[in-house]
Input
Amino acid sequence: MALYVQKYGGSSVADAECMRRVAQRIDDTRRAGNQVVVVVSAMGDTTDDLIALAKQVNPEPNEREMDSLMATGEMASSAILTMALHALGVKAISMTGHQAGIRVDGTHLKAKIQAIDPKRIHRHLDQGCVVVVAGFQGTNPRQDIATLGRGGSDTTAVALAAALKADRCQILKDVDGVFTANPRVVPGAHKLDAITYDEMLELASCGAEVLQSRAVEFAKNYGVVLEVVSSFEVKPGTLVQEEVEEMEKMIIRGIAADKNQAKATLLGVPDTPGVAARVFKALAAAHINVDMIVQNVSAAGITDLSFTVPKDEIVQTRRAIEPLVKAVRATGLNFDEDIAKVSLVGVGMKSHSGVAYKMFDVLAAHKVNIEMISTSEIKISVAIRSRDADRAVRALHTAFGMDAKKRAPAARRGAKKAPAKKAARKGK
Output
């Protein structure tokens, strides 16, 4: 008997009909002789609606209360889906993050999983139950509800799979798997049969919305067999694993665009040791994730320091940095919200030269100006104007020979199974 953890996103459980369809899918998995733990997101746009409602009564709502509010969306989904399973005659029980034994740190809105005690889940599984867990949440050391940030239900599912030593964790989406680019933007984008943890981690951090980056990190750390599949059709999806055969032959595995980016610039900063450390210490204390960083060439001992942050964290960034403007003798602070990050990702970059040149040449040919650049072993990212993002992605997808008509589909036999690692209860 295999143990499956299945996660269903908001579009998969958007209404009663969707709930019934998902319940049937779960029952089919159970009838095939498997134990099933299900993780659900809030229905449809519930989370966005709750956030909008909160900001109607208070433009800057308290983070603890926001967590208490937003967690209700996943709780409602888990209860309704459990009712749908009952209607099919399936023995099932819903659980909150707390009831599922998920313990998180003290950070509200972006909490990290610290430990999972799966005893209660195992007990219900042994009794023949399907266990339906509300994703996106856990209990912090103060016994308050804390949420895991956008896409946190993915992380809940993978972390549970690790703690339960599940045979497979399936992330069920409204897409067929992981694509070379957003198929809504690039008509020639095609589904990948397999992708490495490292490539998926980079794509997720660069704006690909198919998986949350922390979920991929969990999967990599604990050797969780992860599969992205369609929630609407039963067919092979994309395996995320340690290695993919011939992975170096395909130089670029995927292209992502992230339009939820803003550039902050600290103007007229004295070019002296310690200034950058003070700035980024303040950002770290505010739990703000900084991505690209550029410091201009110093002129007469004065420079500008620019960095990118998520667009929805501008208020927190301003609050953290403004007190430092005078302290570090800067002349000002401004924000530019009209930017996007476009990234090329592929393990094959390690063994192929000229990728950066080709990327920059293609963008130049399409009159796309590059404002910031960052790189890793398997990634090149550029900051450009938001209006140019989709056009840039399409141009790069074609230039690197990734359009579906230009390459044969990869065979699933090319994937290697990830080596098993011992799952642990602790998170990172």
Observations:
- The radius of gyration is 22 Å.
